[in-house]
Known about the structure:
By secondary structure, the chain is an all-alpha fold. Helices cover about 50% and strands about 0% of the residues.
Amino acid sequence: MGVLLLASASKHFRDPGFYREVVPDYLCRRDPAAGTNQGGSEHGNVDQGSGDGSNRDQGVAAQHPLALLSRDEWIAVSGLLELAAAVGILLPPTRKLTATALTAMFTAFLAGHVDALVRACGPAGTPRRRKIHTVRLPLQAPLILWAWSLRKPSLPMNRRGGRA
Length: 164
């Protein structure tokens, strides 16, 4: 699990686009575009939604209370959390707490995977995106179960080097 988390954490920074679709729009802060005022663009038209035009000509819609970070900031934060978890899972004193936190984190990530699959099956989705997210979503279950299983203490070694 530690190696998987290290690999995933590094991928968050090497290839953030891999994770972009699984960050739900409702978590993403909508910042004003550069060179615009807080009320919208210089011409008063604002469209800062997910690209589907749903906010067009409505001004800035109220943001979801969880929209604290931009999409790229969420990706970076989750990469840092996975890096910290990779270290925590390898250290016996922090393993149980880290495994519990990982279980919660992987469970929370389910929302992003479901959201990505729903969008991939929508009108803007493509067959390729549907396949990717159809495979990605069920992979969360074994990760959640694996993380939960790491809460148990490891078996002590007996004197001959085998597990007791």
